Amino acid sequence: MLDxxxxxxxxxxxxxxxxxxGCGGTISKLVEQKNNVYCAAFSACQxxxxxxxPSDILITEVKEATKELGVPEKNLILFDYEVRTFNFRxxxxxxxxxxxxxxxxxxxxxxxxxxxxxxxxxxxxxxGLRAFKFSNIMCYELxxxxxxxxxxxxxxxxxxxxxxxxxxxxxxxxxxxxxxANADFIKSLARIRGTQINSMYAECxxxxxxxx
Length: 212
Fold this sequence. Notes:
The structure is a single chain. The chain is α/β, with parallel strands linked by helices. The chain has one domain: Rossmann fold (3-Layer(aba) Sandwich), CATH 3.40.50.10320. Helix content is 38%, strand content 20%. The chain has a 7-stranded mixed beta sheet with strand order 3-2-1-4-5-7-6, with helices on both faces. Helix 2 (57-68) links the parallel strand 2 and strand 3. Helix 5 runs antiparallel to helix 6.
């Protein structure tokens, strides 16, 4: 079992809630294990927020959600890219990711799957791979967007880690209408992934690069 402690960890989130949905339990555990966890979100999706919420509501929500997982406020990095336009701004995104690489020097990078069908997610995965091709790269699972997913890597989680993930996602009141934004789905998926490795709970990852 790979034991990650005292490392710099960078989570690349195309949108403000992707890190929590994709690997919120793992973030909770990594923070607990005294790693330096950084979350970089590239869009607050202001153009697609429901009309009953302020357009910048996701900025407030991501701050509350990452705090719930134990990520220090100074380790939350927010960019202002317009949702669904990432594929037109690849070089700018790559430049920003390379700056994160220089500033943080992460030991492990978590990002969306290269098989994610959302155009913003796919772009971040592609540019993330370009930037970190010589680093440890783990791709997190977003089942509603993944055309396919190779369940090669797992993070064993306790009940408390899943509960923190649920609590963080519940901070996103503007996303509560989505059918995957609820405790039942989150816990059920964690049980399925746990069952695959004879554990109670887990999150799974595609391993793009792993240096031992």
